[in-house]
Design goal:
Largest sheet: 5 strands, mixed
Strand content: 15-25%
Number of helices: 15
Order of helices and strands: HHEHHEHEHEEEHEHEHEEHHHHHH
Strand order of the largest sheet: 2-1-3-10-4
Radius of gyration: 20 Å
Length: about 325
C-alpha cells in the first residue's frame, strides 16, 4: 500500500492519533478544500478546544473543509467580522446575536451548542457574594464587549438592583484578572466553565460563584453563527462545518486529554490540568430536555422567544421580531 499523506490521516484518525499541524496543512493543499474561518470570542482555551481538535484530527478535512480557528477580541468584534464576510463563522450567544440583528447585522445561528449559559459572577469567598443583591456597594471587573458584561446589566435589572449601586469596571482580559487578583474588585464576570475554574486554581480555591441562570437570566450560550448570505449561497458548506463541529465536540468530550493537547500545541503556557477541567465542565451545558428529544445543537423556538422577551425587558434590546426563527435554523443539523 502506498503510504500517502491521506493514508496517514485515515490511519491516524482510526488509531486516535493527532498529526502534526504541518501535516494537516499539507493535506489541505492536496485536496480541493474549501477555505473556512471560525472566529472565537477571545483566546484559545479549554472549553473551545474541540475546534482545534477537529482540525488536528482531520474531521473538517474529511468534510471538504480547510478550517482556520482564529482568536477574537470579543463577541461584538466577532459578529462584525462575520457580518462583513471577513470570517465565515463566529461563536456567538443568542442574546448577543439579537442585539447585533437589531443593529442590522445579517447573522443567523446554524447550531446552538450550549443549551445553558455559562455566565457567572465570580467573587472572593470573604466577600460572601451569593446573589445579585450582594453586589450593592461592590466593584465588579468586567470585559469590554463581552456577553457576560451585557448580561450583567440585565441580571441587575431583573433582580431590582440599581445599576449605579454597583461599580462596574470594564477592562480587557488581562487587566480584568489583575484587577480582581489585586483585590481592587470584589468580583468579576466570566464563565462557570472557564474563568471560575481558572481563578479557582490560581487562588487555591479561595473564590465562589453564582450563575446568572439561577437568578432569572436563563439564556443560552455558545452557538455557531454565519452570515445569512453565506447560508443561502453555500448550504453544503454550512452543513459540512456543523457536522464536523458536532463530531469534534463529541470526540473531545470523550477524549479531553487529547483535545487539550491540541490547545497546548498552540498555547504552550496553558495549564493542562485546568484546561481539561474546563472542557469537562462544558458537557453539562450542552444537554437539556430539548437535546434529549432533538439532539445536540438544536435551537428551540420557545427558548428563543423567552430570551428575546428577557432581552427586550432587561437587556437593552430595542427592536424585536414577531417570528424568532429568523435568529436560527435547524436545517443543517444531522438527521437522526
Amino acid at each position: 500500500m502506498k503510504l500517502t499523506r491521506r493514508t496517514l490521516l485515515v490511519c491516524a484518525t482510526a488509531l486516535g492519533l493527532t498529526l502534526p499541524a504541518g501535516m494537516t496543512e499539507a493535506l489541505a493543499q492536496d485536496k480541493d478544500l474549501k477555505k473556512v474561518t471560525v472566529r472565537l470570542a477571545f483566546n484559545y482555551n479549554g472549553h473551545r478546544s474541540p475546534y482545534l481538535l477537529g482540525v488536528d484530527k482531520g474531521f473538517y478535512e474529511e468534510e471538504g473543509l480547510d478550517v482556520e480557528v482564529l482568536e477574537g477580541k470579543g463577541v461584538t468584534s466577532s459578529m462584525q467580522l462575520v457580518a462583513n464576510k471577513q470570517d465565515t463563522f463566529a461563536i456567538i450567544d443568542p442574546p448577543s446575536l439579537m442585539l447585533g440583528a437589531a443593529q442590522g447585522m445579517p447573522l443567523r445561528i446554524v447550531a446552538q451548542l450550549y443549551q445553558v449559559s455559562p455566565n457567572a459572577v465570580i467573587s472572593w469567598k470573604e466577600e460572601n457574594i451569593k446573589k445579585p443583591a450582594d453586589l450593592v456597594g461592590k466593584t465588579v471587573a468586567t470585559l469590554q464587549g463581552d456577553t457576560t458584561t451585557t448580561m450583567l446589566y440585565a441580571l441587575l435589572a431583573r433582580n431590582d438592583v440599581e445599576r449605579n449601586d454597583v461599580k462596574i469596571v470594564a477592562t480587557d482580559g488581562g487587566t480584568r484578572n489583575q484587577t480582581f487578583l489585586a483585590k481592587r474588585a470584589a468580583a468579576l464576570t466570566g464563565f462557570s466553565n472557564d474563568s471560575y475554574l481558572g481563578m479557582k486554581a490560581t487562588t487555591e480555591g479561595d473564590v465562589d460563584y453564582f450563575m446568572y441562570s439561577d437568578f432569572g437570566i436563563d439564556t443560552m450560550g455558545d452557538a455557531l453563527a454565519a452570515n445569512t448570505d453565506t447560508i443561502e449561497e453555500d448550504p453544503e458548506m454550512i452543513a459540512a462545518f456543523v457536522k464536523a463541529t458536532l463530531r469534534s465536540y463529541a470526540y473531545a468530550l470523550e477524549h479531553p486529554e487529547e483535545a487539550i493537547d491540541s490547545l497546548i500545541k498552540r498555547s504552550p503556557t496553558r495549564d493542562k490540568d485546568v484546561a481539561v477541567e474546563k472542557l469537562k465542565a462544558t458537557a453539562e451545558l450542552m444537554t437539556s430536555d430539548v437535546t434529549d428529544e432533538h439532539g445536540i445543537g438544536y435551537s428551540d423556538k420557545a427558548r428563543f422567544e423567552q430570551t428575546q422577551e428577557l432581552m427586550a425587558e432587561f437587556g437593552g434590546l430595542t427592536k424585536t421580531v414577531d417570528d424568532v426563527s429568523v435568529y436560527y435554523t435547524n436545517d443543517f443539523l444531522p438527521k437522526n
